[in-house]
Write the C-alpha cells for this entry.
Amino acid sequence: MASSGEGFWFTQLDAEAARRCDQRSFHAFAEGMHSDVRGQVLTLNAGDSHLLPDDRWPKHVFVILGLSGTVDATLAGRDFVLRTLSQLVVLPGVPCELRARSDAAVELISFLSTPPTGPGPG
C-alpha cells in the first residue's frame, strides 16, 4: 500500500486484501487519520453480516466494491449479488445489509455528501 501527502492513495486491493485477510477490516486509505472520505476493506466469513452505518452517518454515500467471494446486499426491498468487481452505490440514509455467501472481501468507500453551494441553474 502506498500513501502520499500529495493528494493521493494507491493500493493494489487484491493483494492487500489477501495479505490482511486475518483482519476483520482495515482502511485502504486514510488509515489512522480522521477523514470524511474513507476506504475500508471488510473481511467477511461465510454467513457473516454487516450493516452500513446509515443511521450514524446519514449524509454519507457508500460505494461497495466486491473484491473476492460472494456477498448479498439487501436494500430498498431488493437483493443484489456482489461478486469480484461488482459495484453498488448506496445513497445517504438508505439502510443496507451485507451477508456473505462465502468467505469474501469487499471495499466500502464512504464520503460525506453535501448539497451544492451557490446559485442553482438558470
Observations:
- The chain has a mean pLDDT of 82.
- The helical segments are 13-19.
- The chain is about 5% helix and 45% strand.
- Residues 54 and 94 are 6 Å apart (CA to CA).
